[in-house]
Amino acid sequence: MTPRRIRQIILEQSKRANVGHIGSCLCVVEILCALYDGVLRVNSPDDLDRDRFVLSKGHAALALYAVLALKGWLAESDLNTFCGDGSWLGVHPERPVPGVDFSTGSLGHGLSLATGAALAARLQQSQRRVFCLLSDAECNEGSVWEAAMFASHHQLSNLTAIVDVNGQQAFGLTRDVIAIPNLKERWEAFGWRATVLDGHCVRDLENALQDHAAQHYAPHVILAQTTFGKGVSYMEEGRPLTQTHLEIHSINWHYLPMSDKEYEIAVAEVGTQD
Amino acid sequence: MRKAFVEALCQTAAIHPNILLLTGDLGYMALEPFRDCYPSRFFNVGVAEQNMIAMATGLAEAGFIPYAYSIATFASLRPFEFIRNGPALQRLPVRVVGMGMGFEYGHAGPSHHAVEDVAVMRTLPAVTTVIPADSAQARSAIAGTWNLPGAIYYSLGKDDRLTVPDLDGRFELGRLQILRSGGDLAIVSMGSLTGEAVAAADELMQSGVRATLAVVSNFNPDPADDLAAILEQVPHVITVEAQAVSGGLAAFAGLVIASRGIACRLWPLAVQSPPDGTSGSQAYCWRHHGLDRSAVVRCARKALGSQKK
After folding, report:
1. Residues B120, B122, B124: CA angle, nearest 5 degrees
2. Least CB-CB distance to A113: which of B41, B54, B81?
3. What pTM, to 2 d.p., does this model score?
4. What is the pLDDT of residue A80?
5. Residue A213 has what pLDDT?
6. Helix (H, G, I), strand (E, B), or coil: what is residue B190?
7. What angle do helix axes A3-17 and A61-71 make, rounded to 10 degrees?
8. CB distance A143–B56 less than 8 Å?
9. Are strands A193-198 and A220-225 parallel, antiparallel or unpaired?
10. Model pLDDT for residues B107-164, shown as the tens digit of each residue
11. pLDDT tens, residue by residue, B75-123
């Protein structure tokens, strides 16, 4: 499993299905790679004592499907049903898909699911851990902070949240919509240990994701600084090559599907990366 | 029903260690017996109903059966989308317990009047909705449903004294219970208003009007066949509920009548007007909305009078 291979699948499938959310998927590639290529203890998706993962930013489900396919839990023929009629594989993940622990899609839901899963592990005296990936704009949701309060009060050190800090949301930049400066201090004020790191460095992510549990008494949040559309130059810059700009340029690659020309360039750029 | 709920839950939890109780910081002087029996299985999640429901979903995925308790409006309406996308969509055995059905929190004001909870839960086919009429039926319902594989919503009353005559704790999923039989009209009630419906049926009987009286105590599965069998025998049905007319018992009866082409006129006694900010005792609220026994009797006489013309 490599970030390059995950990105290739994201590009192939979003082009085949002609859908957007490409930028949101590309920016969490290293986070998912770190989780599924070393951190998560999951022998099989059916193992009751597996570590749990909640993709609270459910609109990045295609990135998760790519990882599940590379794990061998999802057949290529299944992957090719992405966004098809009658498929389990929609834009947001559903629990019947092997390897999807929880259905998500409504922002603000996932951290509470993960908090319940972490409490369950403690009650069952299991060593399993729970990881939850949120978006930075998702922190607008009050329910995120309800869960944050419970998890710190109950010292759920088996719970790790990862916030994909890409600075984007559906109507533009987060700093223009609902600014959330001092995000680290906000989580710390809610009783969490907080780590800020480069969300595209797999090694740093792995180290931070393994750093929890026994030696600590607080849940851990990793604020992963990411670049929206990572790996495709014109997506990182927020501009389409062959299509008309949306009114707010920064959100082009939140919505647009790729044209043939854009796809060709994206594949070429990703193909040359490590 | 509140005492009955806690006692029934304690009894079930004694046998089944995967039962947990969560509360959104409500149930003081009520939930303590569970907390004292099973301190490691009781969690006050704070005033955070969304988190309570989604945490319960996370717990259920791991094999627990969590009961999530609050006042009915807060348990059902605030986290409705988390119920929909959580235990309903993901088919997990979360039990949402809404306390204070209808106007039981009368003096507390409209924010506490649970007159939409059953209506909105009816829209989720994956959520079995249970509305006991008295404590004995609540005990039977809790004992009979705790191990359903999917989600359940319990709309419960605080009142531990009310006993509906002749109901005798009967409860069966997808069925209704018949308390009186008569061919002049049917009265179908839901929840603690059943006490008023019984009183009305008995008053009508004194003047020679014979009413069939039935109690609907659950939806999803709906007791549609049972209801149709009753309505096919009478020209009029009065539904009695402390619930919005557009979504509760009246809406259910209307669907049964219309979809099966039954020649029975529906007279809905339900909450039909928007809240005007006033409140009062439960008895006052029932009178104010035309749901009490005298309203049922008046409605029956009007229905039968319309027939003669």
Report:
1. 85
2. B54
3. 0.95
4. 96
5. 56
6. coil
7. 120
8. no
9. parallel
10. 999 999 999 999 999 999 999 999 999 999 999 999 999 999 999 999 999 999 999 9
11. 999 999 999 999 999 999 999 999 999 999 999 999 999 999 999 999 9
Q: Can the peptide bond before residue B221 be classed as cis, meaning omega within 30 degrees of 0?
A: yes
Q: Which amino acid is at A33?
A: C
E strands along A46-165, which residues? 52-55, 130-135, 159-165
In the block, tokens 């009520």 appear at B30
Q: What is the mean pLDDT of chain B?
A: 97
The pLDDT value given to residue B308: 59
In order of start, what are the domains of chain A with their CATH numbers?
A: 3-271 (3.40.50.970)
- Chain B nearest-CA residue for A147: B51
What is the three-class DSSP state of A103?
Answer: coil
CB atoms B55 and A106 under 8 Å = no
Nearest to B59 among A105, A109, A116 (CB): A116
Cβ atoms < 10 Å from Cβ of A48:
10
Length of chain A: 274
Instruction: Provide the residue type at B169 as one letter.
Output: G
Contact B85 A115 (CB under 8 A): no
Q: Among partner residues B40, B61, B90, which is closest to A117 by beta-carbon distance? A: B61
- Out of B51, B61, B62, closest to residue A112 by CB: B51
Q: Residue B178, Cβ neighbours under 10 Å: how many?
A: 18
Distance CA B280, CA B167 (A): 29
Residue for token digits 């700009």? A245
DSSP character for B18? T
Q: For the purposes of burial, counting CB atoms within 10 Å of the CB of A248, is it exposed (0-12), middle (13-18) or buried (19 or more)?
A: middle
Q: What is the CA radius of gyration of chain B?
A: 19
ipTM for the whole predicted complex goes beyond 0.90: yes
| 3-state secondary structure at position B130 | strand
Cβ separation of B54 and A112 shorter than 8 Å?
yes
pLDDT for position A212:
61
pLDDT at B43: 98
User: Which residues of chain A fall below pLDDT 70?
Assistant: 212-215
**How many whole angstroms separate alpha carbon A37 and alpha carbon A41?**
10
* A118 contact B CB<8A: yes
What confidence tens digit (pLDDT) does each residue in B1-46 have? 999 999 999 999 999 999 999 999 999 999 999 999 999 999 999 9
Q: Tens of pLDDT along B236-287?
A: 999 999 999 999 999 999 999 999 999 999 999 999 999 988 899 999 999 9
For B179, the token pair is 């308390």
Where do the domains of chain B lie, and which CATH numbers do they carry? 2-156 (3.40.50.970), 177-308 (3.40.50.920)
Look-up: residue for tokens 């259905």? Answer: A103
- Of the residues A95, A101, A102, A158, the best mutation for testing chain B's interface (the one with the most B CB atoms within 10 Å of its CB) is A102
Residue A144's closest chain B neighbor by CA?
Answer: B51
